[in-house]
Amino acid sequence: MSSEVYKILGPISVVQLWLCLWFMIKKWPGNKTMSYSAHAAATKAGIIYYLASFSLHLVLFYIFALKWFAPTYGLPSIFLVILFIAELGQLGALLIPSTGGRMTLAHDITAYLMHILLMPLSLFIVFSNNFSMFARLVAVIATSYMVFVWLTFIKGKLNDRHLLLQTIYGLSFHVAILVAAFL
User: Fold this and answer.
1) What is the spatial distance between Cα 173 and Cα 86, in angstroms, rounded to a whole number?
2) Taking the CB of residue 29, how many other CB atoms lie within 10 A of it?
3) Global confidence as pTM
4) How far apart are CA 43 and CA 160, in angstroms?
5) What is the pLDDT of residues 37-71, one digit of tens each?
6) Which of 85, 84, 145, 87 lies closest to 119, judged by CA?
7) Which of 56, 61, 146, 176 is deepest in the core (most CB within 10 A)?
8) 3-state class of 76 per DSSP?
9) Which of 125, 149, 148 is nearest to 138 (CA)?
10) pLDDT tens digit string along 107-133?
11) Are 49 and 24 in contact (CB under 8 A)?
């Protein structure tokens, strides 16, 4: 099978995830101080939905990266290793719902692992000459935003903007990857 077949899995996985997250916020509303995980953890159905939606995204996105994105742009194997570890972190966060106590601590650690690793993944685009200058600029902006959010988080200033900052954080990574892949 041609690697070109895998090319479309990136955009499909990103659109699928964000449509599912939008639906989840509408179906199990909370408030803007809550993370996506907190919205999902509010009900058993939410937990199952979140696990299924994100798992589909993780599989499709990794196949896209493994079979098309990384080989097409000559990214080193460490890119795929870091992506795999990030996806394991996300999977851990999905399997350990944020339901309080030790569960929330374990959930947060795995979720933070995933979020932290999105920064070096974006930097692969920034420092690779195989991407357009525009794609590299978008990746610089995405990475800068991620650093800003982490600094805001460390200072304890997320407060009433958690959902917004988390949304833009995830979108910035996805936009950087898709712009690099297609522009």
Assistant:
1) 12
2) 10
3) 0.90
4) 22
5) 887 778 888 888 888 999 999 999 999 999 999 99
6) 145
7) 176
8) coil
9) 125
10) 889 989 999 999 999 999 999 999 999
11) yes
